[in-house]
Write a structure and sequence with these properties.
about 270 residues, 8-stranded parallel sheet, TIM Barrel
Length: about 270
Amino acid sequence: MINNSIVIDTDNYLGSFPFRKLFCNTPAELAKIAEENNVDVLCAASINAIFYRNSMDGNMELYESVKTFEESKQSPVKYALFAVINPTYTGFEKDIEKAHELGFSGIELLPLYHRYTLGDAKSTQAAKLAASYHMPIRIRDGFEDFRQRHQMDVQNNLTPAAAAAMVKAVPEASYIFTGFWPEQFLSTDPKDMIPNKKDLFFSTFKLDLYHINNNFDTFLEKVGADHIVIGSNAPFAYMEPQFLRLENSKKATQEDLVKIYGANIKPYLNL
């Protein structure tokens, strides 16, 4: 870990998942794990909000639970909240406005779960509204390896082409992509966007030090540290391995690590 550098985990969730039991999924429990790993800020969205018909009900649960936790001052760990937005739900525009008013840092789009296409009219409208409030957009693929998913969970995966369609539709927005296989971005449309868009970020989740086709050092060399942010996917995955991958990198410089740990994303969050 780099001394005196802020550490922001960009990929976190609170709440209950319908398809398996989660641990450390309350504000206090996840903050305890973060503190043990020297994480300063957790970027969290509500799992419940994904599965509620009205996602804003889950967003408000998240807001209230985190507010209560932070007011208790039991931990120095802070939360940057991302509001789950379902652009197929009537009135989603008001949800984004309300999230902005409450101080949410960004919004989260989950097209697999809410059954729409990135770059279509509704998702474009949501992304444009978020961009007008300077709220970054986190776009997530599935939560678990497709080989292990419950039969009632989504069975498809998002493609880099789908991600590219969203960026092309709303280039003024800031994006965090997480849950994808990042190396796919190097051989498809998004690779041409990366050099010209400073606020396009890829989570380290699913990057590995040793996997020949999904190697962190290879991705770092081709994409650059300016476009990578640390993301653990906790509580769906353990937090520690993400930091070990960075610490054991043979290519990342100290300057690279400072950026990836938090300097890249900090200017875009409401901290």
